[in-house]
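Feature request, filed as a ticket because there's no other form

It would be nice if the structure record came with a short human-readable summary line next to the tokens. Right now we just get the raw output. Example of a typical job, pasted below so the devs can see what we mean:
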Amino acid sequence: MASLPTTYRRVVCIQQTADFARATEVQEAPLQALIDQVDANPALILVRVTQVGMNASDVNFVAGRYDTRVKPPYDAGFEAIGQVVKGSAFKLGQWVGTMQFGAFTEYLVLHAKRVFPLPDGRPEWLGIMVNGLTAWLALHKAAGIKKGETVVVTGAAGATGQIAVQVAKAAGCTVIGTCGGPVKAAQLRTLGVDRPVDYRSENLGEVLKNEYKRGVNVVFEGIGGEMLKMILPNLAVRSRLLIIGAVSTYANDGDFGEVWSDVIPTHLLLPKSIAAQGFFLNHYMKDFPEAWPQLVKGVLKGELQVAVDPHVFRGIDQIVDAVNLMAEGKNIGKVVVDLTGDVQAKL
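Raw output as currently delivered:
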């Protein structure tokens, strides 16, 4: 492995707001402090981060929505892959992935038992950590999808949606996927989506009402707002509504109670015995050992397609641009920032 630099850079939240650019700044810190942690604890490893993944929750994290007790400054991001450069728990050069807070950094200290060992450094692995695990576990463990059911995935061309539609198809379901624009609709067809719905040119509520008269069985919903309102009247008897987020509200400042305005009328649930539940990935950690190998096998065999957004972002200073692209819904698949240029330039 190459020699280590004396300093590294990381993205730090300095004020809590949903505006990622205003919320964060790039700061430089001495690498020796991280090296000392690894030297003092054989369970720790030092990882040179090569690529980081963007998630809608990056905005929520810097906005202070997950834990109101956490106050700035704190490190941003929570998804990265890289290579082990120090520590005895892995061979040097081993590729690993992490979903640890503070992942928007050039170097990161990780507990060896809390990483995903990877066979290589391809960016597609970023698409099956937060996104892939959310899709697989929400559909299989929370919703219990069954062969022959009809599943709606909102935001289906996004990083999580693209995995969710494939998980549902692999389970033998009919899949309806919402997206914005004909390019994204075409992408969904390549993933096997039975009925892409471009919300810019079609009304989802009318599509469901006219084409799926028996109702839909499972909804994988992460948009909220008007999208959710159009779905609710079109649910089938004993259907399951999974709430994984509400990205249409995330751009506004405030905590979840202030920005998340969706209301699910209970009078629509009772007559059809509809089950509505939230899904938060951290509550399903005990199921990771079952889901993770399935996702890795799917990628290695070419059975699971992970689209990496074609926009190119290089260096830690471009993380803010990558987050903004994702937050504006302009991405197709997983938005990734390559950090190798920054690190190599300093060696």
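Something like this underneath would help us a lot:
The chain has 13 helices and 15 strands.
The CA atoms of residues 137 and 287 lie 8 Å apart.
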